[in-house]
Amino acid sequence: MLQTVHDLIVRPAVLRWHSTSDMSWRSLSSPASTAQIEIAGPDPDRVLLVGGGMTVGWGMTSHDQALAGSLARQLSALTGRGVSLDVIAHDILCDEGTIAPALSQLLPTFDAIVITPGDLDTLLLLPLRTYRHRVDAVLDAITELIPAHSHLLVIGLVPMPTVITMSQAMRWLTTRLCAALDREARLACASHSRAAFVPFHPTDTPGRGGTGRTYETWAGMIAPMISEKLNSSSDQSIR
To answer: How far is CA 36 from CA 29, 170, 190, in A?
Structure first.
């Protein structure tokens, strides 16, 4: 019954708001869906940033100004190596674990795959079981394709009230759902030996538009754990 209400009422209403409201971040500019960022340095790490949400770079005109560029620069500073970062803005969880053929061919070439879950899961009040199933399926699919030394990291969800204006009731609901979805992602990563969950709890974001400084701050919250994983790799044969 609850699933039926969700599918027939909640989902259509949220999607309509998402596509028409001036407060939806979908009304903001964003860079192209794919890009590559190169940071010069020795023995460069190859990193893939893929997902929806903050990977998209809402409010920016290039990925160099957005999360991808900030993350590449901070990883290089932390490791002392170069970075070749590919960004693919796509909600990887929306296809329930299926991996596009083009992405399947790319995956074996990366030292780290960083996934940011999509930006609609919280607003759509996605059932926890459905979210866990999708995360598990994506982790299973990617694990089968990446080499032994590669790392797979799932970033926590961006709390919706930090980026869009909401009613008090929706803020209360989405904040709690975001925490619950993160728990499911953490459990999914714990059940996959190759995967790690990266907590993400921004407190000083300036609003839905974002700025270069916002993305620098966000990158700074996740870069230390990613760089630690990269530094722990004993086999660097594909760099």
So the answer is: 19, 37, 30
